[in-house]
Design goal:
Helix content is about 20%, strand content about 35%. The chain is α+β, with helices and mostly antiparallel strands. The strands form 3 sheets. Strands 5, 6, 7, 8, 9, 10 and 13 form a 7-stranded mixed beta sheet that branches. α2 packs across α3. The chain is globular and about 45 Å long.
Length: about 270
Amino acid sequence: MFKTILYLLLISFHFNVTSQDQISLISWNIRDFGKTKNNEELDQIAEIVRDADILAIQEVVAGYGGAPAVAKLADILNRKGSKWDYAVSQRTATKYVTERYAFIWKTKNIKIKNRGALIKELEELVDREPFYIDFYVNGQKLSIINFHSRPHDKDPESEIRAITDYLKNKISDHPIILAGDFNVNEKEPVFDHLKSLGFRTALTDQKTTLKKNCVTTDYLNHAIDNIFYNTQISKLKGDTIDFINACENLANARRLSDHLPVFLKFQVN
């Protein structure tokens, strides 16, 4: 039943990206993304993301199951009509909260020169140091940084400040995106400095996490996932992909993740 509802809901979320100068990015914290995800769940995830050009995943399991799950998802996507490639990061450095990141992207108009790297300059300041790749869209460089912060009660603000300082020293004339789970709402003052550098957000104070149980008809919780983009990018649309729709679907939806995907459709200036 949930699978049927999911497919029907996704009709309204098709990105219809046909122009080469329009790109769609999905950022998604897919909880415990590894061998706990069975083939049916991976297929449901693929249906949700298949119309995007680039997918950034947070919370890929650091152990054996994480990278194979990414490869399996890419394989499922490859059987749905487009050619995809993927990259999985090394384990993040901090021993007790280590995980991986992943990117999966359509190869038709998006190329790479290397398979990305963790940002080692932030290793001592950020528990799960970000993972980045320089993509080339029709020959133009597009840097995307993938990040999962500490929990809200463990001072994610200090990590956001460290990443902002890093970006301040890296600002250039090419497009840069910072995507992920920040565990802080974008309206909080800690993001003011990033915004002063010209970065804007795909979402504005929009809830992205799922409650464990519905309260009346409300199943959404915190506004903590987002996509920040610099002045070399023009937003065409930003939103969440709400694949739940009703309280009776919440339990099955949480088997995929306790976060909604966030997407940004944009053009490079």
